Queue: 2 jobs
Job 1
Amino acid sequence: MKNRTDKDTAVADFHAVKHIAFIMDGNGRWAQRRLLPRSAGHIQGLKTFTEIVKYCFEKRIANVTVYAFSTENWNRSEEEVGALMELLERNIDENADELVEKDVRIIFLGDKSALAPKLADKMRDIEKRSENNRAILNVAVNYGGRDEIVHAVNSLIKDGRMSVSADDISSRLYTSASPDPDLIIRTAGEQRLSNFLLWQAAYSEFYYSDKLWPDFTPSDVDKAIDDFMTRHRKYGGY
Ligand code: FPP
């Protein structure tokens, strides 16, 4: 990949990015700073999600992934978990059709068996209705990277496999329809992966923003991509 360093003339070059993934962190802090309940931060975070996803697809990024609810998020209060699940369902009801019409395939990464049956059914329905679409939006819900790898290996064992290759495992991950992410963006100043795309992130570039997710804007995506374009990806070589 071309190594660009001239920041002054940088214009976000979206063609180099086939897959961008977001760890949408900071909703809780956004709400706390305003003395609002944490759910208010998630509501604002959903607005940001809608805007950022729309922007990425307008810029012809073929694969976008977001971390909406991790396997560890069940440890939050019943009230917060309930609010997040309600938002997810509302998001499917209100926004999914527009994305599907815009040729976006929606895939939910993670184990649906622990979710409310009504929500899981809505997820399966939208996955089915959009399965032939070109661009991909992966929404990680009840997702954990370790859990995903275990699930992939178990599915190979179930098929009677005695040994497996890295490609076999990749092919059984929830993300098998997408290439590995080129760029993973995390907001809210935290610099860790938090069990997100553990296998797929082997050669991803990371970009950290101090902005809280509800404050993140399309121009912050541009900045991240400009920064990404200055990176020299070596994949273990020179
Ligand atoms: C992390 O911020 C964010 C989450 C656990 C939930 C992300 C959900 C959304 C952005 C809204 C719903 C999205 C979809 C796709 C329907 P945090 O709560 O850990 O923030 P904190 O670290 O400041 O407490």
Job 2
Amino acid sequence: MLVSENISDVCAVTENKEHFKGEGTKLWGGRFSQKTDTFLDKLNASIVYDKRMWYEDIQGSQAYARALQRAGFLTEVEEQEIQKGLELVGQELELDKFKLHQSDEDIHTAIERRLKELIGLPATKLHTGRSRNDQVATDMKLWLKSRLNTLKKYILDLTQHCLISLSTVASSPVQILVERAKTEVGILIPGYTHLQRAQPVQWSHWLLSYAWYLKEDCDRLLQVQERMNIMPLGSGALAGIPFSINRSLLAKELGFTRFTYNSMNAVGNRDFIAEFLFWASLTAVHLSRLAEDLILYSSREFGFVSLSESHCTGSSLMPQKKNPDSLELIRGKTGRIYGNNCGFMMVLKGLPSTYNKDLQEDKQAMFDTYDSLESILQVAMGTVKTLMVNEESCTAALTPNMLATDLAYYLVRKGVAFREAHHLAGEVVILSEKQRVDMPSLSLEQLKSVSEKFEDDVLKIWDYKHSVEQYQTVGGTSTSSIIHQIHVLEEWLHFSEEN
Ligand code: ARG
């Protein structure tokens, strides 16, 4: 199609008369005797971005033509001509041969205008009972429904990578993956709260914590998709259709499971966009937090991971730099995605019922969010897949004071109430600080000066591996719990991929 993606380009196109085959007539021109102001024309034109829905618009029109024929508003011949004509328009759009007219406000107008040029009279019957109001809501749902499946696939792949990166063979079958995961489990990192070293955890546990976020994003996506599966077409401008169109069949043909029951609601409802924008924001927030962790972990100060050069860039001034741009862009795009969400809620908040032109703002928010999320999912996938874990640096970052909680649990096992045990472990921390030694260097006598409950077996506390293996209850950071998580996630992945 001879229209640029860029909004300023389309303004130039609007001004460049040579670009157009003819002035054309506006769909709604009947009651107007004055020409539309040029600036309003520019502002009103959504074709520059809504052309992305051309396929769905044609799909919707083809199904609608069949519905009109069934209802007796088109003869079989007319319907056939419309079908063939729409095919041709689709080919022109696909091959970028579609010539734009100045009157082509949006993709709906453009396609109908071209159809009339190609087949004449039958084209003028296609809009019987239909309005761009129910048409646009239907097109958007069709577009989003199919794109959400693509996003879901990326999320599943990324989740898979969180599992796979535990293994050295990226495309291993499940059994091998789990076996490999078992052998690679054991790399410990400091777990943080408030970004302060808290307790030792397994590197795999950290990775899987994001797999769980992504699983929830997928679960939520299914719900959003389910609610989106309601066809607005057949609602007219706002009052419905005065002709007997079989909406149930129409919905089925377009792949919707249901259709709307209130025409006023149908044409003014953009909750599916708002839900998509929120869902995308939350998914992006998860990617952004993953990115933030990895930005920290890949810094010299932490050194837990090394990012692949394929996912970093350098500095034009400082030769030594290897910057985690992939992760920073994920974090940055998240702000943008969230901005689209907030912005669109502001568009909606004061609108009177049914369709208002403000709703046209839905498209840029939807497309931009889709593009941004798709790109950060792809980049997140690559970054997680190609990074290397530096086991030595991870281990070196573990410090004995991270075992203070285990010291309290030791006392709990000796019969001390937890609050008391917590207090006593705190006293051991103070003692070690006063003595200027790490806790494991305190003698049994020194420990006994805090509590008589300390015995020889306290020594086993000062072992990080022993520490993590204590957390065996489902959800904890022990190896058995991690293997369990992997099983559950893999089962879910297989189920999700099959469905
Ligand atoms: N381009 C318009 C939009 O996206 C299509 C609907 C136009 N409806 C109308 N009543 N002017 O919102």
